[in-house]
Amino acid sequence: MDHGKPKVFAAKRIPPEALAYLEQYCDVRSWDGDGPIPRERLLAALADAEGLLTSGDAIDDELLARAPKLRAVSTVSVGYNHFDLDAMRRRGVVGTHTPYVLDDTVADLVLALMLSAARRVTELDAYVKSGRWERGQPEAALFGTDVHHASLGIVGLGRIGERIAQRAVHGFGMKLYYHNRSRNPEAEERYGAQYVSMDELLGESDFVVLMTPLTPKTERFFRKEHFDRMKPSAFFINASRGRTVDENALVEALATGRIRGAGLDVYEVEPVDPSHPLLAMPNVVTLPHIGSATAQTRRDMALTAARNLVASLRGDEGAYVVKELRS
Ligand SMILES: NC(=O)C1=CN([C@@H]2O[C@H](COP(=O)(O)OP(=O)(O)OC[C@H]3O[C@@H](n4cnc5c(N)ncnc54)[C@H](O)[C@@H]3O)[C@@H](O)[C@H]2O)C=CC1
Ligand SMILES: O=C(O)C(=O)CO
Question: Where does the record place the D-isomer specific 2-hydroxyacid dehydrogenase catalytic domain (predicted)?
Answer without folding.
Answer: 9-322
